[in-house]
Design goal:
The chain has about 200 residues and is of the alpha/beta class. It has one domain: Vaccinia Virus protein VP39 (Rossmann fold), CATH 3.40.50.150. Helix content is about 30%, strand content about 25%. The protein contains 4 helices and 7 strands. A 7-stranded mixed β-sheet has the order 3-2-1-4-5-7-6, with helices on both faces. Helix 2 crosses helix 4.
Length: about 200
């Protein structure tokens, strides 16, 4: 992770979560390759779970597939992911899983690059812009609370080639019953396709 990504996540935690006394936090793409968000969530009453596809530093749970998560609906209060979605081939399937495991009223804090050199780990498929985050919100029927993109290079040396798109998404407290059925059908389809 580059320094600007950490700085963005620190800002989001300060603005959206600082007053929370109890949180269940999942970090998708948590492996500490060159940095981790874990210390931002190391607070009394907060439970952090690092999730990735490979074992390594800062990984508490290794997924068998990025499209099937071993959790019930509505488990996490907050889901964070930074510099991971560009590596997920079918990110919209992963996105639906994140929406499924988020509690009503919960937040997803998503940071993904909007530019930068190819960095295969093991693949590098995508770059994201604000309209892409609006599309993600609509696809999962989440509220897009805020979105911004770094159009100018960051001052940090390691961040200079990167532009982060930063978004905050909220799951509505009440949703039509058909929407939960839509999420369950999406999860079932993912199991069929990627088992």
């Amino acid at each position: 992770m580059h320094e600007s990504s950490y700085r963005h996540m620190d800002d989001l935690v300060g603005r959206y979560l600082a007053d929370k006394t109890s949180l269940r936090v999942a970090d998708l793409g948590s492996q500490d390759v060159n940095g981790s968000y874990r210390r931002l969530f190391d607070r009394p009453g907060w439970k952090y779970l690092g999730i990735d596809l490979v074992n390594g530093a800062n990984v508490d749970l290794v997924l068998a597939s990025p499209y099937r998560f071993p959790f019930s609906n509505g488990v996490f209060d907050v889901i964070v992911s930074g510099q991971a979605f560009e590596h997920v081939e079918y990110f919209w399937l992963t996105w639906m899983e994140l929406a499924r495991i988020l509690v009503p009223g919960g937040l997803i804090l998503l940071i993904a690059p909007s530019r930068g050199p190819e960095h295969r780990f093991p693949t590098d498929c995508w770059r994201f812009y604000p309209d892409g985050y609006r599309a993600l919100a609509g696809y999962a029927r989440l509220e897009l609370v805020e979105v911004a993109t770094d159009w100018e290079p960051a001052p940090e040396a390691d961040s200079a080639p990167w532009g982060d798109t930063v978004g905050v998404f909220r799951k509505p407290l009440r949703r039509p019953a058909w929407h939960d059925l839509r999420l369950r059908l999406h999860a079932w389809l993912s199991r069929m396709l990627f088992s």
